[in-house]
Amino acid sequence: MAIKVGDKVKFLNATGGGVVRSIIDSRLVSVAIEGGFEIPVQASELLVIDPVDAGSRFFHESFDVPDIPQSSDPGGVSLSSSDGPEDLPRNVISSRRSEELFLVFVPHDQKWLITGNLDVFLVNNTSYDVLYNLFRKADDGSWSGVDYGSQGAGTRLLMATIHRDDLPLWTEGAIQFLFHREKCKQVPPPFHAEFSITGKKFYSEQNYRDSVYVAGKGMVVKIATVSADPEEKKSGLTGKASSVKETKNSDDFIQRHKTGEREAVVDLHIHELVDDPAGFEKVEILEFQKNYFIRCLESAIASGFLKVTFIHGVGNGVLRDVVMDILKKQEGIEVFDAPMQKYGVGALEVQIRHNQ
Predict the structure, then answer these.
(1) Quick check: 113 and 204 in contact, CB under 8 A?
(2) Could you tell me which of 132, 179, 231, 260 has the fewest CB atoms within 10 Å of its CB?
(3) How far, in Å, CA of 31 to CA of 42, rounded?
(4) Is the same domain home to 200 and 102?
(5) Cα 50–Cα 52–Cα 53 angle in degrees, nearest 5
(6) Which residues contact 132 (CB under 8 A, 6 or more apart)?
(7) In terms of domains, do 37 and 127 share one?
(8) Domain membership flag for residue 90
(9) Domain with 264 in it: what CATH number?
(10) Are residues 336 and 267 in the same domain?
(11) Is the C-alpha dihedral spanning 72, 77, 83, 87 positive or negative?
């Protein structure tokens, strides 16, 4: 049964209960309890006391909380994927530095992140309304449509709630977007990108991080960065490697990797960092890459940079794990998978929030 504002509910894992005051998101509701307090509770830990249900007499309790009427406003929506997009928090929209779209996988169980069902959100952190089209790639190479529709600017949409056994159906696919708003200097071209997410990422807790886009921890996969500047799409990483090696004596370490206003791209492949890596042992290569990453990160923070993309490659995943171990200890930053259409699946985007 869907939970609605005004429902009387009983706690399954504790004594007592109360009345649902508001729907926080697809997993959490705010429950008013005795004494006038409101607490957030996972919907999965609540039992709706339905007076119409014949079995409810076994669970009925009286709670000293005033009833509130059923409402047709947004606070009275039920927990289902048909409720439509929800507005992103105002502070997220007001602090937006770039136009971006994400897929976010949010575990229902926030204590045991690698078990149980997950919600799949499409986050549109842009100033454009979008038409989206999502395809799934089958083992035989064919494509099947998963979902399509429209989504307003600055919103998140619950696309599906999936069982963990169904994750392989969401790890490889393609997504398309068309963009619209009343006025823009240039018309953004249609977007199309295929994506591939390593299945084992869903079973490592370090890949689930607190995000401003959803409540709780989730795995955030960046799908697209929208730009109306055609020259930006052409720039890519052209000429970056030579510029890195020619400016080794720069006093400001991150400046050698600068690609835009307060932004940088750092390729951590060893052949991009040294002229002749042939004499390095594997353990020396990893240590060199780790130290280089730390120097770049510290320099970017100190120099007021807002975004740094670190290209770690695919390989055996060791360098990525080292980088993630360092990043998760940092405060004031957010980490995303970098846009797949530009970097593939071997790069991380670090957004330095406190420099905003």
Answers:
(1) no
(2) 231
(3) 10
(4) yes
(5) 70
(6) 122, 147, 148, 149, 150, 151, 175, 176, 177
(7) no
(8) yes
(9) 3.30.1370.110
(10) yes
(11) positive
Please say which residue of 55, 76, 97 terminates a domain: 76
List the domain range (segments joined by +) for residue 254: 236-355
**Beta-carbon count within 10 A of 142 CB:** 9
Q: How many residues does the chain have?
A: 356
How many C-beta neighbours within 10 Å does residue 340 have? Answer: 20
Candidates 297, 298, 306; CA nearest to 261 is 306
Q: How far, in Å, CA of 260 to CA of 339, rounded?
A: 16
Would you say residue 182 lies in a domain? yes
Distance CA 220, CA 212 (A): 10
Least confident of 54-63, 96-105, 182-191, 281-290: 54-63
Number of structural domains (the chain) is 3
* Pair (147, 253) in one structural domain: no
Q: H-type helices in the chain, by residue range? A: 90-94, 230-235, 240-246, 270-273, 282-302, 318-327, 340-343
Radius of gyration of the chain (CA): 23
Sign of the torsion formed by the C-alpha atoms of 30, 152, 191 and 99: negative
pLDDT confidence tier of residue 34, bands split at 50, 70 and 90:
confident
Distance CA 253, CA 255 (A): 6
Task: Please tell me whether residues 108 and 62 are part of one structural domain.
Answer: no
User: pLDDT per residue over 166-215, tens digit each?
Assistant: 888 888 888 999 999 888 888 888 888 777 787 888 888 888 888 888 88
Q: What six digits make up the tokens of 239?
A: 């000429």
Q: Quick: pLDDT tens for 46-75.
A: 888 765 444 444 445 656 565 544 433 333
pTM over 0.90: no
d(CA 209, CA 225): 20
DSSP tag of 343 = H
